[in-house]
Amino acid sequence: MRMRARAAVLSGLLGLLASLCVSAQGPSRAAVTPPAATDGKTIYDAHCANCHGAAGKGDGPASSLLTVRPRDFTLGRYKLRSTESGAVPTDDDLLRTIKSGMHGSAMPEWAPFLTDVQVRAVAIYIKSFSRRFASEAPQAIALADPPAASPDSITHGKAIYERFKCASCHGDDGTGRGAVNTDLKDDWERPIAATRLTEPWTFRGGATPRDILLRFRTGMSGSPMPSFKDAATDAEMGHLANYVVSLARKPVWEMDAAAVKSFYEDLDRQERSDKAARGRYLLDTLGCKYCHSPIHEDGSAIEEFTLAGGQRLSLYPFLEPVTYNLTSDRRTGLGAWTDDQIKNVLTRGVRPDGSRMLPFPMPWPAYGNLKPQDLDALIAGLRSLPPVPNAIPAPKEPTLIPYLWGKFQFLILKRDIPSTDYPGNAGTPAGARSWQTQAK
Question: 356: helix, coil or strand?
Fold first, then answer.
């Protein structure tokens, strides 16, 4: 059993920053030693494994908490390539991605922190995760420059946008509004969001017309974004790229105060039109799955029980709880709870049986400050979660003397509360009912 296993997740999220700081003090860029895969492994383990996993499967300790999931290197499927659809990337593609990062995701640009030799060593090591690189010889496609941007080109591009039904994922105006395909999944059946074409600073492969043309030509392997090679000419895809560039809005940091206010009011209205989607967004930003998902020994989430509770904690001498199942399962989750019962737990710490919760580890005093509309959206988001049976046992309540002694240490002696997260699922997937539903 590994105590404080959750610290590994914090390492995954915070270690990236630390690694950047350490790397900034690393070897001089004058180094000329040829790279080797063993050198790449050392760098990878220090800076990449927290997200991408020790074996390159995209399952590092921090992976489940990232909205854009880290790449699984073992299958050789890469989004950003100059090669044909489905092919592995060239070395230059890998080097470019490592150096430049992937905008709009947790993948930073490593060029300021690693030498060219170090970047190449990491690329060599990453290739070792997939057998495809040993048997395939990737070739960059020959791609002409897109047509010069002009009103006529943009008009042609708009027609192609409509012909390819791009609005079904990206919306009529590129913001996602009006999109009908809103439940997109990647090749690993994980949720994935269509890019907002009005925000080019989030384009992972670059925002120039040529960058965008390359994405249309090659597709983005592992995602729902296909290649248009067999559906359009390079010139047509170039017009489409010019149209996408024309959709860009002014970024917030270039707006005046009135424009910023108007922008966020409009965004707020848009998000509140879909309460369940807003609620799922709040579940992510409030970090609910950080506690309500059980963990492996390395601190990564047991993903089949995401938000299904079962994480056993120890806050001795106050409490030894097992986190609640938040899914819509009626026998073991929140499916049979009323909206008012959920609100009472979230904002007052009052369980359905009338008993009260401590203000930690569940921070209900903070959630008491949620706006009513956000609270309603949060409940709608919870209701939309697929049911995952996982019966939760009752918490171990403290006895009076240890409780008072712990409170004295906390309030008078100013000592921190000892906290332990235990790996494994403390729930029972085949259990008849959860304690949380029996207490209703």
Answer: strand
Given a contact cutoff of 8 angstroms between Cβ atoms, the answer to whether 418 and 315 are in contact is yes
Selected from 1.10.10.60, 1.10.760.10, 1.10.357.20, 2.40.40.20, the CATH number assigned to the domain covering 151-249 reads 1.10.760.10
Please give the Cα distance from 383 to 281 (Å, whole number): 13
| 382 Cα distance to chain centroid | 18
In terms of Cα–Cα distance, which of 92, 84, 221 is closest to 141?
84
Cα–Cα distance, 333 to 339 (Å, whole number): 13
Confidence at residue 272, expressed as pLDDT on a 0 to 100 scale: 83
What's residue 38's pLDDT? 67
pLDDT in tens, 401-424: 888 888 898 889 998 888 889 999
1 in helix, strand or coil?
coil
Place of tokens 């080109």: 153
Tokens 């989750």 belong to residue: 333
The string of DSSP codes covering 70-119 is PP-GGGT--SS-SSPTTSPPPHHHHHHHHHH--TTSS----TTTS-HHHH
pLDDT per residue as tens digits for the range 202-212: 999 999 999 99
- At 98, the amino acid letter reads I
Query: Which is it for strands 312-314 and 420-422: parallel, antiparallel or unpaired?
Result: antiparallel
Do residues 52 and 74 touch, judged by C-beta distance below 8 A?
no
Distance, in Å, from the CA atom of 233 to the CA atom of 247, rounded to the nearest integer, reads 22
Would you say 124 and 34 are in contact if contact means Cβ atoms under 8 Å apart?
no
Give the C-alpha separation, 186 to 221, whole Å.
Answer: 9
φ, ψ dihedrals at 255, nearest 5°: -90, 155
Round to whole Å and give the CA distance between 117 and 34: 7
- CA neighbor of 80 nearest in space, from 123, 30, 135: 123
Intervals of the chain under pLDDT 50: 1-5, 10, 13-14, 17-18, 20-32
Residue type, 84: E
DSSP bridge partners of 295: 301
CATH topology of domain 6-135: Cytochrome Bc1 Complex; Chain D, domain 2 (1.10.760)
Judged by DSSP in three states, 209 sits in helix
Whether the Cβ atoms of residue 169 and residue 224 lie closer than 8 Å to each other:
yes
Report cis status (omega within 30 of 0) of the bond before 423: no
Q: Are 437 and 345 in contact (CB under 8 A)?
A: no
**For the whole model, what pTM was predicted?**
0.82
